[in-house]
Amino acid sequence: MDIVTLHGKYDIYKENALPQRRFKYNKLNEVLQKHLHKKNFNFLYCGYSFEKRPINLLKYGSGPTTVLIMSQMHGNEPVSTLALTDVMNFMESEEELNHIIKEKITVYVLALVNPDGNEKNDRRNAQGIDINRDAKSLISPEAVFLTKVVKEINPNFVLNLHDEELYYMTKPLLLQTAIAMLAPECEISPKALKARSNAMKLISCISQTLEPIAKNRIARYDDVYTPEAFGDTFISNGISSVLIEAGSSEGDKERCFARKTVFCAILTALEAVANSSYDFFSEDIYQNLPLNIRYKSFDLKLKNLEIKSEYGSYRVDLGIRRIKPTFNDEDFTDDFTDYRIVNIGKLDNYGALKTFDASEFCLKGNYSDIYIGKKSDFTIINNFGIEKECQSLLL
Ligand SMILES: [Zn+2]
Questions:
Q1: How far is the CA of 307 from the centre of ligand 1 (A)?
Q2: What is the pLDDT of residues 334-349, one digit of tens each?
Q3: Smaller CB count within 10 Å for the chain: N or C?
Q4: Residue 72: is its pLDDT beyond 90?
Q5: Predicted TM-score (pTM) of this structure
Q6: How far is the CA of 329 from the centre of ligand 1 (A)?
Q7: Distances (CA, A) of 337 to 36, 75, 117, 322, 353
Q8: What is the Å distance from ligand 1's center to 72 Cα?
């Protein structure tokens, strides 16, 4: 299906019961129940999270190739689950693509692998365990269930859906990454290398197909071999696992653009697996994707602001960034609104999600009001007496 057409149809299939980025488990469950009533998706069985929330395994189609789509192993990464519910709505429709998918693939869906984490907006499960580092130890019931499911359905492909922090950008243009993908590293064995090769080809296909809708914002996720992670374990076992990370875009707090991009990515992947077209793509396209880098960036850079003082005037750039009031490094910064000055000086070498040229402004206040750690509750003023509050520039 032509990507521009698919992208244009997105609003028809967007799950309106889940309009916002953060949702509660019960709301998702209502959506899954809706699908089960329609009978294209069948309920197979469920596992339980540590706090006994059901994790439902659904099945769609009856083709010989098997694909598992699983989302939100990390509880604070809900965009991937939202995109998956949008895809499920598409899969309920009479679109021609669905007939091909149903005939060629059996699709298994595990939406929200970490429901306890989702309730608390926490990356980890209720035991404080990172499920994606528990593939070998299997302490968490969620990891045990996931391992059991994969053993039983023995998928050819896994789409492992995650979200990433908003500071990730693509080189060299330093645009916020809309989607990042990875074919995880693996053990060196013929079956693992073949599985990884197919994962790379599939990513090559997805990235090239998505280019018209997310130009220069599709990245290769950078990672080292992590044997305790699920993706790496799957590939080592001969399953072509593709990590898909939903990114972000400027001012898009609900991450609607990333949600739509991942919707397109999942359906592109299903089509490419259904007709085996991924096999015609070179691994080089994947290898040459721009790297997804966590750029040392600010939320806002105020450029060239004049600071007046009794000791003399000067101009500086101010770097302003959100601070996480948490001990957990993996919490997403965009859940917080405590903005602070984190750098002062000439900041040309630092990226920023937003830059404001303050050349015509000076600080309303004293030089000693501007310091590292200062809240962004100051005001700037220009020669005509027009004032701007820094906070208003952040929104
Ligand atoms: Zn994740």
A1: 42
A2: 888 899 999 999 998 8
A3: C
A4: yes
A5: 0.92
A6: 13
A7: 39, 20, 21, 6, 15
A8: 7
